[in-house]
Design a protein that fits this description.
There is one protein chain. With about 500 residues, the protein is of the alpha+beta class. The protein folds into 4 domains: about 50 residues; about 230 residues, Thrombin, subunit H, CATH 2.40.10; about 90 residues, Pdz3 Domain (Roll), CATH 2.30.42; about 80 residues, Pdz3 Domain, CATH 2.30.42.10. The chain has 14 helices and 26 strands. It has a 6-stranded antiparallel barrel. Helix 1 packs antiparallel against helix 2 and helix 2 packs across helix 3. The longest helix is centred in the N-terminal third of the chain and has 27 residues. The radius of gyration is 32 Å and the shape is elongated. The N and C termini lie far apart (about 100 Å).
Length: about 500
């Protein structure tokens, strides 16, 4: 009976253990029912209500199954990945010789400053060294020495070298470069018995907004710097000179990161870091990378022929805002509005006209003009296309074939989105000057003054614009404009076509 005095304690301990076990199970069930953001709050609640110790509370929390959000946080640990892929990343060193004219100008400025000091001001004068040194980043895509980087990294280079992560420096030759996509291909000599660490590429079309990504480069010359973030958007188009649907991320990129790889969590390259959106020249939260699918297509063409052949349709599309959607009878702003069709182009041959709205292209819905341009830019010359078009309220199908973009014709480009704020009428016009009539085929009237409180100003019309069409009526003279003005409805939205600095646009005017 020695153990008799201990029996009550044993029973109490067993009951307490059973109670705690049941309570922990209930807590775990509650934790599973809530998101990861509620875990800490529930853990605190459990400690206070059950009278558990801190150690027991930690045990209860660790016993729960990690949520998807917690798993994503764990997956964003890129330490092993950085170690694995770094050998395939290289620093690109560029040497550019300054021209004799620039050097003489710089020396002249320096001599004048020796006599007059810093008080002298010479318009356009810059002091420049005889040789400029720049740098960027590149990465291997084949084991025999082919690398990818940016066109703007090596543009104008007289000598290019690459520095590997073991500090080996190799001479590199430029295989080819494409300014419109900002992709360049370099080659270093293959070394006997040695292969270069080529990086695996992924599928940039499969990239999802929100997934973690990693960048490695040489920002401000700090080699092999890693930065991580998430994909914040896809298919970004913000330049008429760049034909790339950029991957947008919040990865910190700075000067020197250009040309470096953007990795997914599996260590696959999904993009080439190209540029940042900044008002200061430094990182401000928006970075843009060239999708690797597009980059590899450019790489293959540059490697095989040294040039890039692009598909050409011959259109100038713009987005549709709320006013235009109402004017064209659309239920919502959707589609690509053609404001111009280039003469003798595949678009004209297929029957497309200015004022058409392309709603589907090869079976894919077109929400914005950038959707259409991204598809065309990924197409090949000679490919057939089918477009679903809305023309004057009727749906029609247009079939045609793309051609190769001629060198002397501007590529298909996004026109600035029209202003969608409410508007009020008020402007002054005059006949076009004689020298402008020939350039515009004798059509249009010149806007000389815009009332800042009127319909035109609210729509974004400016002095200097040329009005060529109002409410589906061609404008060739002031009389045409006044006649069209008298026929405007009392309320609703009508269209007005203008030419600004040589670029046409269609704007919706709200009259109520």
């Amino acid at each position: 009976m020695k153990n008799t005095p201990n029996r009550p304690k044993t029973i109490v301990s067993a009951l307490k253990t059973t109670y705690l076990s049941q309570s922990l199970q209930k807590s775990q069930q509650k934790l599973k029912a809530f998101g990861a953001g509620s875990v800490l709050a529930l853990s605190g609640f459990g400690i206070g209500s059950l009278g558990l110790t801190a150690g027991t509370a930690l045990l209860a929390t660790s016993a729960t199954i990690p949520t998807a959000a917690q798993a994503a946080v764990v997956a964003s640990d890129f330490s092993d990945l950085v170690e694995q892929v770094s050998p395939g990343v290289a620093r690109v060193n560029v040497v550019t010789k300054v021209s004799e004219e620039e050097l003489a100008k710089a020396q002249t400025v320096e001599l004048l400053r020796q006599f007059f000091g810093d008080r002298i001001r010479i318009p356009g004068a810059q002091t420049a060294p005889a040789i400029e040194y720049n740098y960027g980043t590149g990465f291997f895509v084949t084991s025999d020495g082919y690398l990818l980087t940016n066109h703007h990294v090596i543009a104008g280079a007289d000598k290019i070298t690459v520095t590997l992560n073991d500090r080996t420096e190799l001479d590199a030759t430029l295989v080819g470069s494409d300014e419109r996509s900002d992709v360049a291909v370099l080659k270093v000599k293959a070394q006997p018995g040695k292969s270069y660490p080529a990086l695996p590429t992924g599928d940039s079309n499969a990239v999802k907004v929100g997934e973690p990504v990693l960048a490695i480069g040489s920002p401000f010359g700090f080699d092999y710097s890693a930065s991580a973030g998430i994909v914040s958007a896809k298919s970004r188009n913000f330049s008429r000179d760049i034909s790339v649907p950029f991957i947008q991320s919040d990865v910190a990129l700075n000067p020197g990161n250009s040309g470096g790889p953007l990795f997914n969590r599996n260590g696959q390259v999904i993009g080439i870091n190209s540029r940042i959106f900044s008002g200061t020249g430094g990182y401000m939260g928006l970075s843009f990378s060239i999708p690797i699918n597009e980059a590899m297509d450019i790489y293959q063409q540059l490697k095989q022929t040294g040039t890039v052949s692009r598909a050409y349709l011959g259109i100038f599309p713009q987005d549709i805002d709320r006013n235009l959607a109402e004017a064209y009878g659309l239920s919502k702003p959707q589609g690509a509005l053609l404001i111009k069709v280039t003469p003798k182009s595949p678009a004209e041959a297929a029957g497309l006209k200015a004022g058409d709205i392309i709603t589907h292209y090869n079976g894919k819905m077109i929400l914005e003009s950038s959707d259409l341009l991204n598809i065309i830019n990924r197409s090949k010359p000679g490919e057939s296309f089918k477009a679903d078009v809305l023309r004057q309220g009727k749906k029609i199908a247009v079939i045609g074939k793309l051609s190769a973009a001629p060198d002397d014709v501007a590529p298909d480009a996004v026109v600035t989105k029209s202003n969608n704020s409410q508007i009020r009428l008020g402007l002054r016009i005059q006949a076009l000057p004689r020298e402008s009539l020939a350039q515009l085929d004798g059509e249009g009237v010149l806007v000389t003054e815009v009332d800042p409180t009127g319909i035109a100003a609210r729509a974004g019309i400016r002095a200097g614009d040329v009005i060529t069409n109002l409410h589906q009526k061609s404008i060739k003279s002031i009389d045409d404009f006044q006649r069209a003005l008298r026929q405007l409805p009392e309320a609703g939205v009508v269209t007005i076509e203008v030419v600004r600095q040589g670029i046409p646009a269609i704007i919706g005017l709200r009259l109520d």
